[in-house]
Amino acid sequence: PTTGQLYLNSNEMIDAVNVYGMDGRAHSPNLQEIQSSQYAIDMSTLSEGVYVVQVLFENGEVLNRKVVRR
């Protein structure tokens, strides 16, 4: 669960991040590289609920994870 910031550690470069509500609506979160291989996704503007975070890597891989926003 998160109350605002979601942190990711990745050795792969991130190309884009998409966030989808359970209703299928897309949201455009702010992705910030904190330091080499560490990123923060700002989810503070989203309402409480469950979201799917989709991470697109530069090598073509896609990672999907459910996240609870409190």
The multimeric state of the shown protein is single chain
> What percent of residues adopt helix (DSSP H or I)?
under 10%
Average pLDDT, all residues: 95
Shape: globular
Instruction: Please tell me how large the radius of gyration is.
Output: 12 Å
pLDDT < 50 stretches? none
What does this structure look like?
The chain has strands spanning 5-9, 14-21, 26-27, 30-35, 38-42, 49-57, 62-69. By secondary structure, the chain is mostly beta strands. The chain contains no helices and seven strands. Strand 6 (49-57) and strand 7 (62-69) form a beta hairpin. The strands form two sheets. A four-stranded antiparallel sheet has the order 3-2-6-7, with no helix packed on it.
Give the tags.
three-stranded antiparallel sheet; mainly beta; globular
Question: In a nutshell, what does this entry contain?
Answer:
This protein is mainly β and 70 residues long.
Task: Set down the secondary structure blueprint.
Blueprint: E1 5-9, E2 14-21, E3 26-27, E4 30-35, E5 38-42, E6 49-57, E7 62-69
Antiparallel strand pairs: 1-5, 2-3, 2-6, 4-5, 6-7
